[in-house]
């Protein structure tokens, strides 16, 4: 059970090159909007056609530019949950779900599958409702029900939470995560939200300006992004150019500091990243004098912006993010960071 | 006084047949024009919309240029006994040409505002393109298509310029309501002209009332 994708497409100035494989479990395509994530899903579904490449699902070739294979979407058996759920507005929930069951010729079996999915998706009693009468969460479940009854070999979700109110999102995330886990086959989910990607997926494929940068286990990616764009996409706020001094020391010229690292520094280092959460006034290592600049409050956290004493005045301030109850009364004169939390970024 | 109802029957059949023709042709062109490359689409759009902005007499003139019995196509068709000049079904042609752009443009507008993800999700669910077109796209574009059909029917029923150029006025043969009104008024039969004016008003009122009724019923159905 696996998906193999290797596609290339030119769209004016934009060039999409995405090659990756995905097995059972949730793989997230994470990237800024306009980076080509949704377009990649559309190519896999057969809605868009790449210029060249190869797409294969469970051993069946869906697209191959050299062998001139391009299966229509109807023959690909790929479930696609659109951002707006794309429920047919003129049909009831029941009729919508039956659209996913049109391949089932046996009437009794069709009714049985319909009843099962209605129960599983907690849509009982809503069969006769039109999509416009459903809440956002119900629409999402109805659209998923319609897809799941068609028994796709691959499930693709395009920003599944973007159409929902913020307060609904968190509870639905848990629900959807469990559902996707039970699905048991490959799931591709597109999102621009790194915490959503972290919540939902076991693997993340990072995309930036049409290029697939890397595909890694989710936790490993956040612990060691490895490159500047990956660090930015995983939410690292403080990134500066750096030089290797020795196997465990780097120099950061624009901050005017040296940092000890837990990981061994390889050649070709271009920058370091320091996550805003990991500074500590009493950290024994990597402690340097700092000057407080500004504070920005959030509901439960606060962001303190500071500069290192020897920092280049043209470089942006460094962010320190901490829970409000941990905020010190007086801004500390020095801040340190554990060598384990110095991210080494390469070209 | 005995009334010759021929103009009413003739007008209704011309309007009905041309409306059906225009319905399918308009939808066909609107659907495929939306898929064409931009430049071809632009050119086609101008040609298909011209009959709407040209004076109907000019449309009639062009129709005579093409279908006149001494013209190549007209002469060719005449060999099969098909003659659009001075026949009632020539009136269908004239009405269809003039009414076509109304259907085409309203249907195209409706198709362009159609949410493509609905069609895409239908495809990924394995539904055939024909099913998606008739059961998802058409119902979603219902309002626009209905409006276009009504406009086309009303335009076909009221057609005068191109009709009089192509099929003229022969009582009991090519007379329609609008050409009859003009003919009777010209020959000082003001009562006769008024009669047909009232008939025309009655038909238009019934058509518009029907449309309004259909729309309110649909709105209720959507809410329920």
| Cα end-to-end separation of chain B | 51 Å
**Mind summarizing the main beta sheet of chain B?**
none
Q: Classify the oligomer.
A: heterodimer
**Shape category of chain B:** globular
User: What is the N-to-C succession of helices and strands of chain B?
Assistant: HHHHHHHHHHH
CATH architecture title of chain B: Orthogonal Bundle
State the total count of DSSP E strands of chain A: 22
Helix content of chain A: 10-25%
The CATH superfamily of the largest domain in chain A bears the name P-loop containing nucleotide triphosphate hydrolases
Query: How many distinct helices of chain B?
Result: 11
Largest sheet data of chain A? 6 strands, mixed
Describe the structure.
The complex is a heterodimer of chains A (347) and B (224). Chain A has 347 residues and is α+β, with helices and mostly antiparallel strands. Chain A has helices spanning 37-45, 93-100, 107-120, 136-149, 166-183, 194-200, 218-223, 228-233, and strands at residues 2-11, 14-23, 25-30, 52-57, 60-64, 69-70, 78-81, 154-158, 186-191, 203-208, 211-217, 238-241, 243-246, 249-252, 257-260, 269-274, 279-280, 288-297, 301-308, 318-323, 334-337, 342-346. Chain A has two domains: 2-223, 3-Layer(aba) Sandwich (Rossmann fold), CATH 3.40.50.300; 236-346, no CATH class. In chain A, a hairpin with a 2-residue loop joins β13 and β14 (249-252). The mean pLDDT of chain A is 93. Chain B has one domain: MetI-like fold (Orthogonal Bundle). Chain B is built from eleven helices and no strands. In chain B, α3 (56-67) runs parallel beside α9 (161-167), α6 packs antiparallel against α7 and α10 runs antiparallel to α11 (190-223). Chain B has helices spanning 6-33, 38-53, 56-67, 72-78, 88-112, 116-124, 129-140, 142-157, 161-167, 177-186, 190-223.
